[in-house]
Amino acid sequence: VSELLSVREAQDKILAEVSTLPATIYPFEQAINHVLAEEIIAGINLPPFPNSGMDGFAVRSADVSSASRNHPAVLKVVADISAGSQISRAITIGEAARIMTGAPIPPGADAIIPVEETNVFSLNQANAATPETVEIIQTTAPGKYIRPEGQDIHQGETILHAGRRLQPQDVGLLAALGVTTVRVHPHPKVVIFSTGDELLEPAEPLTPGKIHNSNSYTLASLARKYCGEVLVLPIASDREEDIRLRFEQALQEKADLIVTSAGVSVGVHDYVRKVVEESGQLKLWRVNMRPGKPVAFGSYRGTPVFGLPGNPVSSYVGFLVFVVPVIMKLAGAPIGSKPVATAILEEPIESDGRESYLRAIVAQKDGQYFARLAGHQGSGNLFSLVQANALLIVPSGVKSLSVGTKADVWFLNDYLQGN
Ligand code: AMP
Ligand code: MG
User: Fold this and answer.
1) 330, 21 contact by CB (below 8 A)
2) Which mutation among 273, 311, 319 tests ligand 1's pocket best, with the greatest number of atoms within 8 A of CB?
3) Is 299:283 a contact under the CB 8 Å cutoff?
4) CA-to-CA distance for 155 and 145, rounded, in angstroms?
5) To test the ligand 1 pocket, which listed residue (200, 210, 211, 386) has its Cβ within 8 A of the most ligand atoms?
6) pLDDT by residue for the chain (419 residues), tens digit each?
């Protein structure tokens, strides 16, 4: 066991072998989840002009300095300014303009009175034609409900830094600034194929000795979830030539990363490693973990390759632990830490001393997480992974954990309750 690499050592070794894909220009609306390779500097102020934060009346605050419910200030409404319109005239003493949210502030006005603080609202005339006068029942202060030019962003300000992974709100801000293209790192093209004579595609009826290929679809879905551009190739049989053919196809498809399933262990028909070694390099095989020990990493004609074990849970865990960080690095994303929390064990756990990723169900009670195992932990059993909402991590060297002990849990879903 001691000659096997630890999970951490294997991760570091693998990551040292891959480099971030060179940045290119993308239309901003396709750049979501991509990592910026440039600073974005605001070319305009936001808001670009002073505007109203309320539907109401633009006034001179001095004109309403003694307004009250019993003694309203009566102002003459001389303009009606809707969002998107241009200012037609200034406001002078005793005057007001009806104004809508987002509309430009007329010169002379220094405050907005929300319609709710006028007689127009109590008369239920908020949607009616421009009134001749308005009664203001509140005092105000200069600047009230006015959104000054540049309140949000000043022209010349750096609003997004290189290395930022673009979020939905970032894309919105780019739009607001009129930025239509950005320099980002592309998402890697991940080509996936399963190997195994026992495999049939999901649409094919089972025949004796056969099972459906599920790994291609689990792994493709994971790769998509973590921003891979995915292509799934047809199943390869357990023959060297067939496996080699798939690797060649992956290169033709311009794979940035190749992920294979099965045929990477010590079975007589396990040829994936042999094929990789013939046309590339095997850099790592087997890691001191459970499940997923026979994971392989290397390169095929220069393209990075993962050979994941065939057992469905092993390949899933191997993908999360090793492939996701590689996708992130290719995509230029900072490798974040796993979404790990601490949970209290509700049942005792036995382990074999390898770093173990057990399927667990974590629930929150009184602000604390509690974990129990989710069904049978056999690495071929996908259903317990479906029932789990977390992987419970038993560190290497630990063989048992008793009830009440704390352990790290790695959430699989965005929302704990949404499981
Ligand atoms: P292997 O890694 O080839 O020794 O396969 C280990 C186990 O995983 C065997 O029980 C296989 O039948 C199963 N297996 C291999 N490939 C897949 C796949 N694509 N989908 C589901 N199970 C698979
Ligand atoms: Mg096999």
Assistant:
1) yes
2) 311
3) yes
4) 22
5) 211
6) 357 999 999 999 999 999 999 999 999 999 999 999 999 999 999 999 999 999 999 999 999 999 999 999 999 999 999 999 998 899 999 999 999 999 999 999 999 999 999 998 888 877 789 999 999 999 999 999 999 999 999 999 999 999 999 999 999 999 999 999 999 999 999 999 999 999 999 999 999 999 999 999 999 999 999 999 999 999 999 999 999 999 999 999 999 999 999 999 999 999 999 999 999 999 999 999 999 999 999 999 999 999 999 999 999 999 999 999 999 999 999 887 788 999 999 999 999 999 999 999 999 999 999 999 999 999 999 999 999 999 999 999 999 999 999 999 999 987 655 44
For 329, the enclosing helix (H) or strand (E) is: helix 324-330
Largest CA distance in the chain: 96
Q: Which residue has the tokens 């600034």?
A: 177
Give the contacts of 97 (CB within 8 A, at least 6 positions apart).
57, 58, 77, 78, 79, 80, 81, 91, 106, 109
The neighbour count for residue 164, using CB atoms within 10 Å, is 18
Query: Which residue is listed with tokens 């799934």?
Result: 232
Q: Is 352 exposed, middle or buried (0-12, 13-18, 19+ CB in 10 A)?
A: exposed
Ligand 1 site-directed mutation target among 199, 265, 272, 381, most atoms within 8 Å of CB: 199
* Ligand 2 midpoint to CA 220 (Å): 19
Task: Give the three-state DSSP class for 360.
Answer: strand
Q: Is 407 exposed, middle or buried (0-12, 13-18, 19+ CB in 10 A)?
A: buried
Q: Is 322 helix (H, G, I), strand (E, B) or coil?
A: helix
Query: Which amino acid residue places its CA nearest to atom 10 of ligand 1?
Result: 311
Nearest to 398 by CA among 386, 389, 406, 390: 406
DSSP state of 148: -
> Which residues line ligand 1 at a C-beta cut-off of 6 Å?
194, 196, 198-199, 211, 213-216, 261-263, 265, 267, 309-312, 380
User: Encoding tokens for residue 4?
Assistant: 């096997």
Measure 380 CA to ligand 1 centroid, in angstroms: 8
